[in-house]
What we know:
- InterPro entries: Aldolase-II_Adducin_sf, Aldolase_II/adducin_N, Aldolase_II/adducin_N_sf.
- It comes from Pseudoroseomonas ludipueritiae.
- This protein is of the alpha+beta class and 254 residues long.
- The protein is 38% helix and 14% strand.
- An 8-stranded mixed sheet has the order 4-3-2-1-5-8-7-6, with helices on both faces.
- The radius of gyration is 18 Å and the shape is globular.
Amino acid sequence: MAAVIEALSGSEAEEQEWELRRDMAAVFRIAAREGWNEQIGNHNSLMLPGDGPPRFLINPRGYLFQELKASDLIVCDLDGKVLQGSGELRKVAFHIHARIHLQKPEAKCVVHVHPRWLTALSLLRDAELRLSHHNNLLLNDRVVYDHEGDEPVHQSEEGDRIARLMGDRSVMVMRGHGVTVVGPTVHDAFDECFIAERTAMYQMTAMSTGQPMHTLPDRLRRKWHGAWGDKIDARLHLNAWRRVLDREEPDYAS
């Protein structure tokens, strides 16, 4: 494989890219286990480090998350051209991911999935994550709700609107659609998506009882907008999952 990271050379550059590919492949396999993906749809992307024109890794069209390997990921530019790898970039993936990467350079990793609980929350009129669980104390100030995106994303203008609406938030609950989570690293975006989905699960389960929900004191909010992993053990979480995959699905790293 030709090195993508031009600031390095030879095997060092290749290994750095491969480690990023392994992280991304692990996220796809974990997402499959958790039921986050929509058949062969949904997509996760990562900007590659290095000099030269910006390029990102993403899953090619037509693969289930559960079968993706590190070597399957394709490299594209921000115009949607496939530069490396075998496969096609799905148009909706381009309109969401490339535009977010372009408008928000700090969003190195973009996770766009349809997990059960966050997607169910997105279907409810005016529903938002309550300040009800300890997770909410850090999470809620990071979430933005898209109440306008009723149509599928078929053009770059819609991707630009999504990127603008996200602003300095890292989690977007997309009405009637799913969720988009951004982060400065693979592990930040993955872990924040994981925690947001768990939090939605707790809330939706509590709401299903029909009983009034308790509200935590607003003074306990942690009001954090920095990198998720600076407050949470995001890297350790992904490392733990990779150990499981190394034992049970080692082909993810190939």
